[in-house]
């Protein structure tokens, strides 16, 4: 659907949405509910009067054998986003890094997707009018600024416990996801039960 600008001319608004799953996970834990991505896409279409919308979802997942539980459900969810909702899903295995300190050796896991998000936002630059980022990471300020200089509208969605001040004020608008009046939430978040010895 197109909309008329102030001169009565039909104007397109193609929106590209970039979702940082690890950032959203913090909000979901705080809310105690999962996001309903189908409802979220409908909300964004209506809110920004989008003529078309394309969603990119970025996530890192645990390597096989690194968890005491099955991660099959996670991969089924990625398939649902891709095949059911038409999202572009960018995923990679969490990198396991051995850290040696005075207290011994430990394993750290890293799965940062900032570079992938930036590449997609720049690679598709000519295809969209509005960029929406679901993230609170201040590292994205340079990208947001660059997109705005290039004539894009840029909006940030995040939560009060996870938004940097730089990003909150760096775009054309900031939306606190806990304050959205439309229902974008899905089922209750279930805590995994600890296995008894």
Structural overview:
With about 200 residues, this protein is of the alpha/beta class. Helices cover about 30% and strands about 30% of the residues. The chain has six helices and twelve strands. The strands form four sheets. It has a six-stranded parallel β-sheet, with helices on both faces. The chain is globular. It starts with a strand and ends in a 9-residue tail after the last strand. Residues about 195 have low confidence and may be disordered.
Mean pLDDT level: 85
CATH superfamily: 5'-nuclease
* Radius of gyration from CA coordinates: 19 Å
| Fraction in beta strands | 25-35%
* Number of extended strands: 12
Largest β sheet strand count, sense and barrel closure? 6 strands, parallel
Kindly identify the CATH topology: Rossmann fold
Shape: globular
Strand order of the largest sheet: 6-5-3-9-10-11
Report the top-level CATH class: Alpha Beta
CATH architecture descriptor name: 3-Layer(aba) Sandwich
Distance between the termini: 57 Å
Number of domains: 1
Helix and strand pattern: EEEHEHEHEEEHEHEHEE
What would a concise description of this structure say?
The protein is of the alpha/beta class and 197 residues long. Helix content is 30%, strand content 32%. The protein has one domain (11-188): 3-Layer(aba) Sandwich (Rossmann fold).
Please write out the topology.
Blueprint: E1 3-4, E2 10-11, E3 14-20, H1 21-31, E4 33-35, H2 37-47, E5 52-61, H3 72-84, E6 88-93, E7 95-101, E8 104-110, H4 114-123, E9 130-134, H5 141-149, E10 153-158, H6 165-170, E11 173-176, E12 185-188
Parallel strand pairs: 3-5, 3-9, 5-6, 9-10, 10-11
Antiparallel strand pairs: 1-2, 4-12, 7-8
């Amino acid at each position: 659907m197109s909309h008329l600008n102030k001169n009565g001319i039909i104007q397109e608004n193609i929106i590209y949405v970039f979702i940082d799953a690890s950032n959203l996970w913090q909000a979901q834990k705080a809310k105690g509910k999962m996001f309903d991505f189908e409802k979220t896409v409908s909300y964004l279409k209506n809110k920004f009067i989008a003529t078309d919308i394309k969603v990119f979802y970025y996530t890192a997942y645990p390597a096989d054998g690194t968890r005491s539980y099955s991660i099959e459900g996670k991969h089924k969810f990625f398939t649902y986003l891709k095949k059911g909702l038409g999202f572009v899903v960018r995923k990679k295995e969490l990198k396991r890094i051995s850290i040696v300190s005075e207290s011994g050796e430990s394993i750290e896991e890293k799965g940062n997707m900032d570079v992938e998000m930036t590449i997609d936002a720049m690679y598709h630059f000519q295809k969209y009018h509005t960029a929406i980022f679901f993230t609170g990471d201040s590292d994205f300020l340079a990208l947001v600024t660059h997109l705005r200089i290039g004539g894009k509208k840029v909006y940030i969605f995040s939560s009060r416990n996870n938004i940097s001040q730089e990003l909150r004020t760096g775009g054309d608008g900031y939306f606190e996801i806990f304050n959205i009046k439309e229902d974008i939430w899905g089922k209750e978040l279930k805590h995994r039960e600890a296995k008894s010895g």
